[in-house]
Amino acid sequence: MFEKLGIVTNIWAEEVENGARFDELMVEFGANGFKDMEVREGDYLRNSEFGKLIQRLESAMPEYTDAEYKTICDAIWTERPYETKHPTLFEELISFVQKASGLTLSYAMSHPWLSSPNDSEADTQLIVKAKKLAYILCPARPRLRLVDLDTEGDINESAAIANLKHYNTVLPDFPMIFAVENARQTATLTLKLAVAGDAKLTYDETNTYRADGSTVNPPNEFWSAVKMTDLTSVHFKQKTEEGVLTEVCDGFVDFRAITERLKAGDYTGDLLLENTPTAHSLQDALRSREYLLNLTAV
């Protein structure tokens, strides 16, 4: 199972901030067997050379109809001819796509989907832009994930479900997997809202643990409620009293139990590593994968 372990790109944050190129890290991790990559939004990404390319693409998006943009994205990945008002921009995107050959890229960002938006139109346009970024990263299997790190207190479940249903209707001609992740709220509640809103769930068991090792949401409660078809991705990182660790090892999270549940349910989604960033993320990732492989081999 863990031979196909992928990564969330925020594990590169320290290296990117120290001058490493996003695309070179992508190629290096791919060469080491980490083929699934979730491109996680954040300052580290926006400050990278790839982030600056994304910003130029976002500025150019309004100059194309949805159909024109989709046609260009498909053509870039299938090496077909296309017409564009921004030849230099899309030539650079072609160069990135060539480096991403053989990888499966998705896109993830923080977004307060659990709360009613103050400006519905602005909120919709953010989702449009995010879906278009997700699509160009992988037209064959586009996926957008949202995580709400802002909403606190009681949740207006009806508003959250309405948001998800609305987001699903945005850009109907851009079919993609749409997912949310459990963060501050319990995994069981996030799952309930995702299913009601026609979204998939990205599950991170680490997020259920407090600093003292107690749980916000007992894992057994979540696993009793979830169906494997509700899941699109499972994140792996470890936590102890010291916080989230730089590599997967012993700690609060019982990875063996998670693996057994996924195997028993014939889980087919991806598994993504999300360690705390360091200046040597590949070594951390390789040791993490080895730990998980050894754990499930006995």
Fold blueprint:
Elements: E1 6-8, H1 13-17, H2 22-31, E2 36-40, H3 43-46, H4 49-60, H5 66-78, H6 87-99, E3 104-110, H7 120-137, E4 143-147, H8 157-169, E5 177-181, H9 187-196, E6 200-204, H10 219-225, E7 231-236, E8 239-240, E9 243-244, H11 255-264, E10 270-273, H12 281-297
Parallel strand pairs: 1-2, 1-10, 2-3, 3-4, 4-5, 5-6, 6-7, 7-10
Antiparallel strand pairs: 8-9
Helix pairs in contact: 4-6
Task: Describe it.
There is one protein chain. Helices cover 44% and strands 15% of the residues. By secondary structure, the chain is of the alpha/beta class. It has a single domain, classed as Divalent-metal-dependent TIM barrel enzymes (TIM Barrel). Helix 7 links the parallel strand 3 and strand 4. Helix 4 packs across helix 6. The chain is globular, with a radius of gyration of 19 Å. The two termini are 14 Å apart. The relative contact order is 0.14.
Major sheet: size, sense and barrel closure?
A: 8 strands, parallel, barrel
Structural class call reads alpha/beta
Question: Per CATH, what is the topology?
Answer: TIM Barrel
How far apart are the first and last residues' alpha carbons, in Å?
Answer: 14 Å
pLDDT average, as an integer? 97
The CATH superfamily bears the name Divalent-metal-dependent TIM barrel enzymes
Q: Which strand order do you get reading across the main beta sheet?
A: 1-2-3-4-5-6-7-10
Strand content: 5-15%
